[in-house]
Amino acid sequence: MARMKFLCDTERCIECNGCVTACKNEHEVPWGVQRRRVVTINDGVVGQEKSLSVACMHCSDAPCMAVCPTDCFYRTEEGVVLHDKDVCIGCGYCFYACPFGAPQFPQSGTFGLRGKMDKCTFCAGGPEEDGSEAEFEKYGKNRLAEGKLPLCAEMCSTKALLAGDAVEVSNIFRERVIRRGGKGVEAIGWSTAYGKGSADADTRAAAATAPVPEKTGGAQ
Amino acid sequence: MNSLRHAALLAASLSLVLLGGCKESPQVLDKKAGEYQGKVDTRPWEGPAYKGDKATWESDLRARSGNQNELRRMPD
């Protein structure tokens, strides 16, 4: 299995916000935190207005990973960028580094105290036992461990938002572009996120993944 | 005389306590810059649903990915 990737086809996005709602509901994301959102570019310009669904793109060479002072980020073997909330100090460096504005910080109290960073997990949970209460509380549902793709993409009514293995996603998009006679520039953000790889990223992936531990109990 | 001795003893112990505050003990035991510092995560196919069966997990994900292509679901 190669890298997991998101692709938003701006030619198809109708700004229904179904992906946003699906994400919010699936992970019970707190008020004020938007793991995914729909943005409109060239707003009001006739013929050039495009909507696209944006979240963490799980970049090949993730800038958030590079700037984190506590090194709480890791990349899984499937190319999903995740973080350990127990290590995060909520400094906000990742927010400034991210080209997609993905990192979110829950705020509470009179002075708007900033909590630990929260972002899209590609529905892959985090560094807690798969499917456990602790994992759900901190990171949301782990659909990947259930053999499912992120709900935002699976819920998308026009299939503008695609998720999954890079080869599969690229093939689907290529087929569409050929059929409709486009140029393939509709996948905004794709080259920013996946334009370059990193050898360091693979090293981190190897370090962050456990050697097959024994699992006991748990529901099917 | 006795009270003077007590005062000197108190001053000596107080200075020791104050000097103790100057020591900075390391709060992270094994921090290496640029290396992931959090807990180790398991792979998705190692959970209760797949029990380490990577091949089945991969084929299930591939099928799900393929289902996103409505062009293949329609007859030509």
Automatic annotation (TrEMBL), chain A:
Domain 4Fe-4S ferredoxin-type residue range list: 4-34, 47-78, 79-108
Pfam families linked to this entry: Fer4_11
Cofactor(s) this protein cannot do without: [4Fe-4S] cluster
Coiled coil: none
Any one GO MF annotation of this record: metal ion binding
This protein's UniProt keywords: 4Fe-4S, Electron transport, Iron, Iron-sulfur, Metal-binding, Transport
The keyword Protease appears for this protein: no
InterPro entries listed in its UniProt record: 4Fe4S_Fe-S-bd (IPR017896), 4Fe4S_Fe_S_CS (IPR017900), 7Fe_ferredoxin (IPR000813), ET_IronSulfur_Cluster-Binding (IPR050954)
Keyword Mitochondrion: no
Annotated region (Disordered), positions in chain: 197-220
Domain of life of the source: Bacteria
Listed PROSITE patterns: 4FE4S_FER_1 (PS00198), 4FE4S_FER_2 (PS51379)
Protein name (database record): 4Fe-4S dicluster domain-containing protein
Organism encoding this protein: Zoogloea oleivorans
Taxonomic classification: Bacteria, Pseudomonadati, Pseudomonadota, Betaproteobacteria, Rhodocyclales
TrEMBL record, chain B:
Skewed-composition ranges (Basic and acidic residues): 51-63
Sequence segments annotated as region (Disordered): 39-76
Domain of life: Bacteria
Protein name (Swiss-Prot/TrEMBL): Lipoprotein
Species per Swiss-Prot/TrEMBL record: Zoogloea oleivorans
